[in-house]
Amino acid sequence: MVRFSYDARFSENEYDLWALGEYLDRLEAQLVTLRTSDEARTFAELSAEGLLDDEESRTIAWQGLEERADRVYPRLLRGPFLVALWGCYEATILNVAESIATERKLSLQHRDIRGESAVARARKYFVDYLDIALDKDPIREMRINDLYVLRNALAHANGLVSANSDDGKRRIEAIVGRNPTIELNGGFIVPSAEYLRSAFDDVDSSARDLVQRVRGGPAFRYEEGT
Q1: Closest Cα to residue 106, out of 133, 128, 136?
Q2: Residues 179-193: pLDDT tens digits?
Q3: In this structure, what is the dihedral angle of CA atoms 55, 58, 59, 65, given to the nearest 10 degrees?
Q4: Which value, in Å, is the radius of gyration of the alpha carbons in the chain?
């Protein structure tokens, strides 16, 4: 006889990660659609103004198209994805930490921990207090911390590097140095499609691994019984 069990803990976090992955698979197609519609609109306006055959007007129009396609659209679509991705990761570790604290009847909560970054605070709580590794891969954990730095710059300053503190600027420049596909274009952070995929894979694998270690396996289980 097969027994079926379902542990619903953290399932909402897993669903959110799944949904973000589905969105990521479609995001770049949206950029292509934006570029196509922008081009059609731009040259329709030139035609309506009788400037379609004017070389200078066409050159200026193309320059605007290229700038929007290379800098504006990628930043405005990819940036919010990274903000949402960090939100999913943070929600997962907070949910797991709260669940364990409740189960163990612990007085110290994750929110009581202080540290230089969200990842550092989470690591301190999980490792020092819960005796659970936040991430079994320390290199991956460092990359997720990089995501946290970029998320802050994108969420609070729309990716404008100069709006950050001197320390923040140095951190951003160091991250860009480690990730050649992230551009600093016109003073703005412009993440690439490759970086989005890499960041998603890191968060997805790290968060799911933490959930499964704490839950003891997948949510759905089938066991042979008598």
Answers
A1: 128
A2: 999 999 889 999 999
A3: -170
A4: 22
**Three-state SS sequence of 19-46:** HHHHHHHHHHHHHHHHHHHHHHHHHHHH
Cα–Cα distance for residue pair 200/118, rounded to 1 Å: 18
pLDDT in tens, 117-146: 899 999 999 999 999 999 999 999 999 999
Residue 136 to residues 56, 119, 127, 171, 205: CA-CA distances in angstroms?
58, 14, 11, 24, 11
What is the pTM (predicted TM-score) of this model?
A: 0.88
> Residue 1: pLDDT band by 50, 70, 90 thresholds?
low
Residue 3 φ then ψ, to 5°: -100, 140
Those residues whose C-beta lies under 8 Å from the C-beta of residue 110, and which sit 6 or more positions away, are 93, 94, 97, 98, 101, 121, 122, 125
Token pair in block for residue 135 = 């991430």
Please write the tens of the pLDDT for every residue from 196-219.
999 999 999 999 999 999 988 666
Cα separation of 189 and 210, whole Å? 30
